[in-house]
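for the recovery benchmark. tokens below, seq after
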């Protein structure tokens, strides 16, 4: 299991797919790195020699990945929050930032549905059951 950029690459995957486990590397960048380092793309990550791992590491040193990239993204978001830009306010409120609708959907960002006002049927039956046992 080779370790590149602080990330363990899975053994059984081909190199272009294994490189995607590193934060900041997508399909295009993974293929570009494999071509640049002249490694056979059909090779599995557990078959890499230490010299090939070093070539990949050198190629990745020129790209912002993992901790540096995460820090950059978090700094950008905190800057938007600090200056109270519209996108920053949406981040603070935990709402979609890029113009998606929120009347329906947006469950990924807003979390599970919460009933406001009237009780849902399940909650109403629980309340009735609790009252009848007292």
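predicted aa per position
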């Amino acid at each position: 299991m080779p370790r590149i950029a602080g990330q363990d690459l899975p053994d059984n995957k081909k190199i272009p797919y294994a490189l995607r486990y590193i934060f900041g590397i997508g399909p295009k960048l993974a293929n570009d790195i494999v071509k640049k380092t002249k490694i056979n793309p059909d090779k599995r990550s557990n078959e890499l020699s230490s010299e090939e791992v070093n070539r990949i590491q050198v190629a990745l040193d020129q790209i912002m990945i993992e901790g540096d990239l995460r820090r950059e993204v978090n700094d950008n978001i905190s800057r938007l929050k600090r200056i109270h830009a519209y996108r920053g306010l949406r981040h603070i409120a935990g709402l979609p930032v890029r113009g998606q609708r929120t009347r329906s959907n947006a469950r990924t960002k807003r979390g599970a549905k919460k009933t406001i006002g009237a009780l849902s049927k399940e909650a109403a039956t629980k309340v009735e059951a609790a009252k009848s046992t007292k």
